[in-house]
Amino acid sequence: MLVSIGDLAQTLVLKRQNTAAKAGMEALTTALTTGRVADAGGHLGGNFGPLAGLDTSLTRLKAFAGVTAEAARIGDGIQGVLQLVDDVARALSPALLTAGDGGAGSILNGAALQAEQALGQVVGALNTRVADRSLMAGVATDRPALVDGGNLLAQAEAVVAGSTSAGAVEAALEAWLADPAGFQADAYRGGDPPSALPVAEGEEVQFDVTAADPALRATLKGVLMGALLARGVLAGQPAAQAALARRAGESLAETAPDRAHLSARIGITEQRIAAAEARNSAEETALSLARNGLVGVDGYDTATALQEAQARLEMLYTLTARLSRLSLSDYM
C-alpha cells in the first residue's frame, strides 16, 4: 500500500528540516569562530564543576598578570632612580676630593657648584613619578617624596648654622637626617613603605625602598655637604671648607656599597617577579589547554561538518523550490 504525504504536511516537514539545518549551521559557525562548542551545557552533560574551577583559576591568574606587570614597572622605575643617584654621586665624589686636597679657590667653588647641581638631580630622581605615582614616597604615591632641592638645601643650611668646623657641619647633618623629627618630618613628604603585592599563589613581593632609606639619606648627606659650600658655609675658613669638601667626597665614596646593596635588593625582588610571571604564564597555558579539552572544538572537523550542513541546507532549498513550482501538467 502506497502512503503519501499531503502538500501541507510536506511543506511543514521541509520547514522543520530547514529550521533544524539553519540552527545546526549557526551552532557550527559559532563553534568555528569562537573555538568552543555553542552549547557547553549539553556538551558537558550539565556538569559545569570542572569548567567553573578552570575559569576561576584562569581569572585569578589574569589578576596576577596585572599585578606582576605593574610590579615590574615599579621595580624598573626604582632601579632607574637608584642608578641615576649613584651615577651623580660617583661623578661628584672625585671633584669634591680634588677640591679638598689643596685645590685652589676656583676648584673648590667649581666643586661646590657641581654639588649644588647634583643635589637638584638627586632630588629630582627621588621625586620620579611613573604612571602618575611617586616611586620613592612609599604609600604616599600622590605626592613627591622630598621637598625641592632649594628647600632641602635651605633646611640643611639652617641645621648647620653656627657650625665652625667641617666635623661640626657633618655631625649636625647626620643628626638631622637620622632624627624622625628632623629630615623625615621636614623634608621627606612620603609615607611608610607600601604593602606587599601578591604576584602568585601564596607569594608576595614588597618594594620597601623610599627616599628616606638610610643609604639614600647617607648619600644626601654627602651631596648636601658639598652643596652647602656654594651657600657660603664656613666662609672665611679656606682650610675648613677644603676639609668639608674632602669629607663630602669621602662620604659619597664610602656610601657606594650601600647604594649597590640597595639596588641589589630591588634586583632580587625583580627576579622574583619575573619568576612568578613565568610560572603564572605556564600555569595559564596548561589551564587553557585543559579548558579547551572540555569545551573546545577541532577546527578541521568543525569546518568539515559546517560544509556538510551547508550542502544539506542548499539541497533542502532546492527541493523546496522545485516543490513550490509543481503544476498539474508537471504532476501528470
Describe the structure.
By secondary structure, the chain is mainly α. The protein has two domains: 7-35 and 297-331; 54-284, f41 fragment of flagellin, N-terminal domain. Helices cover 72% and strands 3% of the residues. The protein contains twelve helices and four strands, in the order ααααββαααββααααα. It has helices at residues 7-34, 40-43, 49-100, 105-126, 149-159, 166-178, 183-186, 214-230, 238-254, 256-295, 299-324, 328-331; strands at 129-130, 133-134, 197-200, 203-205. The protein has a two-stranded antiparallel sheet with strand order 1-2. A two-stranded antiparallel ribbon has the order 3-4. The longest helix is centred in the first third of the chain and has 52 residues, at 49-100. It is rod-shaped. The model has no long low-confidence stretch (mean pLDDT 84).
| Terminus-to-terminus distance | 21 Å
Poorly predicted regions are none
Which bin fits the share of residues in helices? over 70%
Question: How many separate structural domains?
Answer: 2
Roughly what fraction of the amino acids lie in strands?
under 5%
Number of H/I helices: 12
Main sheet specs: 2 strands, antiparallel
Number of beta-strand segments: 4
CATH topology assignment of the largest domain: f41 fragment of flagellin, N-terminal domain
Proper CATH architecture of the largest domain: Up-down Bundle
Mean pLDDT: 84
Question: Over the alpha carbons, how many angstroms does the gyration radius reach?
Answer: 37 Å
- Strands in their spatial order, largest beta sheet: 1-2
